[in-house]
Design brief:
about 30% strand; globular; seven-stranded antiparallel β-sheet; alpha+beta
Length: about 725
C-alpha cells in the first residue's frame, strides 16, 4: 500500500470555538494525520466525529484523547481484559480495512468506540456487527453506543471461535476487523471473496497487525506488518504458550508455534559462561528488528522464546525485556539466544546483534543462529516486508506436512511467509583494452565470497533502488562516479542442489584509469584483468560467469529497465569422495540392547526401532558425537574415554549418491536411566533381547547387531 505524504482534507470545522473534548479530538486527529497514521479523508472525518471520551467516562478527557490505550475492564488478578486501543493503531487498522459506504463489517472484540468509527465509515447503508465473549464488555459497549447515537450497531455476546448461526450476511462480510490478540484466523468462511480481514496475528509470541485480502479461498497480506499488542483472545480461541521452565534457573522457554522440547538438561548449560558469536550486523538503539525475529522463527528448527525472571539468578547475560521475550533455539543439552552488544555512544547508540551459546555445544548452536542473522542481513533486510498467505486446514483430514521452514500450522489454518529477496548490485567495469576491473575481497571478514576476486558492488539498503545502491557502493569502494552505468544482466546464484541463494543486478560501465591510480577504500586490491587470466585466479563463480556472458554478448551494453537477461551460476559441487559419518550406541544390559521407537512423523524410519544415534556436527570427533547424542536423546551420561569402537557398517542406501559410514560404540560404564528427551524424534526407549529384536527395526541396525553378535568388525551393505 502506497502511503500519501499529504494530509487528508479536513471536512470538519476548525477547532476554534469547540468545547474541550471537541478540541482534543481535533488535536488528536491532527497528530495522527501528521504522523501518517491517517491517510484518507474518510478515516480522518470518522476520528474527528466520534466522541472517544464518551466511551471512556472513567478517565479525564485529556487521557481519553491521549495517543494511548484506555483500559476499561480487568480480571480478578489485575490483567486488562478489555480496552480502547491506541488511536494510532485504530487508524492504521481502519485504513488497512479499506471500508466503503454500504459495507457489512464484523468486529471481533468490542469496546464500542471502534464500532462507532466503523459505523461512520460504512454509513447508513452499511452494517456493523461487533462481538465479544464477555457480557460485561458488551453491556458496557451497548450502553455507550446508544448514548452516542450509534444504536444501529448490532451487539453480539458469543465466543468468536465459532460464530453464531445467522450472524453472517449472504455472501459474507465485506470486512472483518479483529481487535484482540489472536493466534489463529478461523473466520475465513465468513469473509466475502475480495473482502478484507485485518487482525493482530500471533506467530511464536510475536504479534503483528496484518491486512489481508481474500482471493481464491485464501488470505493474502498486502499491507506492511505493524508490531502491536492487544488484550488476549479468550474462550476456545485462547492460545497455549507451551512454556517450559528450566529447573532452578528462572529461565522460561515457550514454543507457541512449535513442538515443546525437554528443558531439564539445560540447567547445567546455563551454569556455564556462554560463548559469544558475533554477527557484525548492527541496529540503532531505537530501531526495531522484529522482522529478523520472525525470520528466525521460521528458519531455525527448535525455535522458541526465552524469558527470564527479573530476580532470578540464572547467569543469562543481557536478559531480554520482560514483555519482549528473546529469540532462542534448543539443541539437545545446549541453547543459543539472540542478544545485543552496544558498540557506540550517543543518546540511542548502535548495537551489534550477537548470539550467546550455552552448554557443551553452545558454540555450534550460536554459530547456526548467527549465520541465519547474517543471511537475513544480506538477502532480506532491505527488501519489502514479508508476504503472508493463509490457507484453511481441512476439517476432516490430517495436518498437511510441509518441508518449507517458513510455514506455521495452526488449529484452523496454515500460515506461509514469503521473504522477498533484495538484489545485490555489482559493477562490470571495462576499459578500452577489453579488460575487466576486479576487486580482491578480504579473507578475514564474514562477507560474501571472502578472499576471492569479484566485481565491485554490494547490497541495497532499506528504501534504496538498485540504481541508487550501485552509485553509492562505487563511491564508498573507489570514490568514483561512473556516468555511463547501464543494466547488463541479473545474476542468480544457485546452490549445488539448485536451490536459490543470491541475486545480483549487474551494471556495465567504462573506466580508463590505471588500477594504481584508483583509491581503494574497501578490500585488498584492484587489478585490470583479461578473460584468459581468470582461470588462474581464485574467483567468485558468479563473477566468472558474468565476464564470459559479457565476452560472448553481441550487444554488451544493457538496458535501463528491469527486463535484463538472467545469468545463472551453480555453486560448484565438491566431487571428492565423501561419506556421512554417524555414531551408534550399542548399550547392552543383561543380554538386552537399548532401542528407541522413532516418532511416527520422523522423516527417517518413522515408527521403527533404532539404536541411539546421530551425525557428528562441525569439527567434533565421532566419540564426542556419540557422548553428545546419547545425553541429548536419552539423558545418559557417558565419558568419551569409556567408549570403544566395536563395529563399522559401510552402507550405501539404494538411490543415494553419498555413502554412509556407521560407527558402533559400546560403553564400559554409563550413568542414568534412559529418558525420552527428544519426543519429536523418539517416543519411547525399551530393552530388547538380542535374540528377539522387535519389528519393524531399521534394516541396517539389525544387520549391525547380528554382525556384532558374531564378533565381526566390518560389514559392507548395499554395495552389490
Amino acid at each position: 500500500m502506497t502511503r500519501s505524504t499529504e494530509r487528508p482534507a479536513v471536512t470538519t470545522p476548525p477547532t476554534t470555538g469547540l468545547d474541550e473534548a471537541g478540541a482534543l479530538r481535533h488535536q488528536l486527529a491532527d497528530q495522527l494525520a501528521d504522523a501518517g497514521h491517517i491517510r484518507t479523508p474518510a478515516v480522518d472525518k470518522a476520528l474527528r466525529t466520534v466522541p472517544r471520551h464518551a466511551f471512556a467516562p472513567e478517565v479525564p478527557a485529556q487521557k481519553a484523547y491521549a495517543n494511548d490505550i484506555v483500559a476499561t475492564c480487568h480480571s480478578g488478578d489485575g490483567r486488562i481484559t478489555s480496552s480502547i486501543s491506541a488511536p494510532w493503531l485504530q487508524a492504521e487498522m481502519l485504513e488497512a480495512a479499506r471500508l466503503q459506504p454500504g459495507h457489512h463489517v464484523l468486529e471481533i472484540g468490542s469496546g464500542g468506540y471502534n464500532a462507532a468509527l466503523i459505523a461512520e465509515l460504512v454509513g447508513p447503508t452499511g452494517s456493523v456487527t461487533t462481538l465479544d465473549i464477555d457480557p460485561a464488555v458488551t453491556d458496557r459497549a451497548t450502553r455507550y453506543l446508544a448514548e452516542t447515537g450509534y444504536d444501529r450497531v448490532r451487539m453480539v455476546t458469543a465466543d468468536a471461535e465459532h460464530l453464531p448461526v445467522g450472524i453472517v450476511p449472504d455472501g459474507g462480510f465485506d470486512a472483518i476487523l479483529v481487535t484482540v490478540d489472536t493466534w489463529d484466523l478461523p473466520w475465513m468462511d465468513a469473509l466475502a471473496d475480495g473482502g478484507r480481514l485485518v487482525a493482530p496475528l500471533r506467530l511464536h509470541q510475536y504479534t503483528w497487525a496484518v491486512g489481508f485480502t481474500k482471493r481464491d479461498g485464501a488470505l493474502h497480506s498486502d499491507e506492511p506488518l505493524i508490531v502491536c499488542g492487544f488484550v488476549a483472545m479468550q474462550g476456545a480461541g485462547a492460545w497455549d504458550a507451551n512454556r517450559r521452565t528450566v529447573p532452578g534457573t528462572g529461565v522460561h522457554l515457550s514454543w507457541e508455534d512449535g513442538t515443546p522440547l525437554p528443558v531439564d538438561q539445560l540447567a547445567r548449560a546455563l551454569a556455564r559462561e556462554p560463548v559469544v558469536a558475533h554477527t557484525h550486523v548492527t541496529v540503532g538503539g531505537q530501531e526495531p528488528f522484529d522482522a529478523l525475529t520472525l525470520y528466525l522463527a521460521g528458519a531455525l528448527p527448535g525455535f522458541c522464546r526465552l524469558s527470564v525472571d527479573p530476580d532470578g539468578d540464572n547467569g543469562v547475560l543481557n536478559p531480554p525485556p520482560r514483555h519482549w521475550p528473546g529469540a532462542a533455539i534448543v539443541r539437545g543439552s545446549s541453547l543459543a539466544r539472540l542478544a545485543t552488544e552496544r558498540i557506540s555512544d550517543g543518546e540511542d547508540g548502535v548495537y551489534e546483534l550477537v548470539v550467546h551459546g550455552y552448554g557443551p555445544h553452545g558454540h555450534l548452536a550460536a554459530q547456526e543462529m548467527a549465520e541465519q542473522v547474517q543471511h537475513w542481513q544480506r538477502v532480506h533486510r532491505a527488501a519489502l516486508c514479508p508476504r503472508i498467505t493463509i490457507h484453511p486446514l481441512a476439517d476432516d483430514g490430517p495436518t498437511p506436512a510441509t518441508d518449507d521452514p517458513h510455514v506455521f500450522v495452526k488449529k484452523h489454518t496454515r500460515v506461509t511467509i514469503d521473504w522477498p529477496v533484495i538484489p545485490g548490485t555489482a559493477a562490470l567495469l571495462t576499459d578500452d583494452e577489453g579488460r575487466y576491473l576486479l576487486h580482491l575481497r578480504s579473507a578475514n571478514k564474514p562477507i560474501w565470497r571472502p578472499g576471492q576476486w569479484a566485481l565491485l558492488g554490494g547490497n541495497t539498503e532499506k528504501g534504496e533502488t538498485c540504481d541508487e545502491a550501485i552509485v553509492r557502493e562505487l563511491g564508498e569502494e573507489i570514490g568514483l562516479v561512473i556516468p555511463d552505468l547501464t543494466g547488463f544482466v541479473t545474476l542468480d546464484t544457485l546452490s549445488a542442489d539448485v536451490s536459490f541463494k543470491d541475486r545480483v543486478r549487474v551494471y556495465h560501465g567504462t573506466l580508463n584509469t590505471p588500477a594504481h591510480e584508483i583509491e581503494l577504500r574497501e578490500g585488498i586490491q584492484l587489478r585490470w584483468t583479461r578473460l584468459k587470466e581468470i582461470g588462474e585466479m581464485t574467483m567468485d563463480p558468479g563473477t566468472a560467469a558474468v565476464l564470459h556472458a559479457h565476452h560472448n554478448a553481441h550487444q554488451p551494453r544493457g538496458r535501463h529497465d528491469d527486463t535484463l537477461p538472467v545469468v545463472e551460476v551453480r555453486e560448484p559441487r565438491d566431487h571428492r569422495s565423501r561419506s556421512i559419518i554417524s555414531a551408534h550406541l550399542v548399550l547392552i544390559r543383561d543380554g538386552a540392547v537399548l532401542l528407541g521407537k522413532r516418532h511416527p512423523s520422523s522423516p527417517f524410519a518413522p515408527s521403527t526401532w533404532h539404536l541411539p544415534a546421530g551425525h557428528r556436527e562441525g569439527m567434533e570427533s565421532a566419540v564426542t558425537c556419540m557422548a553428545r547424542e546419547t545425553e541429548e536423546e536419552a539423558g545418559l551420561r557417558i565419558s568419551e574415554g569409556d567408549l570403544s569402537l566395536i563395529h563399522v557398517l559401510d552402507l550405501l542406501d539404494p538411490g543415494s549418491a553419498i555413502p554412509r559410514m556407521g560407527l558402533f560404540f559400546a560403553p564400559s560404564h554409563w550413568e542414568g536411566e534412559p529418558l525420552v528427551r527428544e519426543p519429536e524424534c523418539c517416543t519411547e526407549w525399551r530393552w530388547w533381547p538380542l535374540d528377539a529384536l522387535p519389528e519393524p527395526i531399521v534394516a541396517y541396525t539389525r544387520v549391525a547387531l547380528e554382525a556384532i553378535s558374531r564378533g565381526a568388525l566390518y560389514t559392507p551393505m548395499g554395495w552389490s
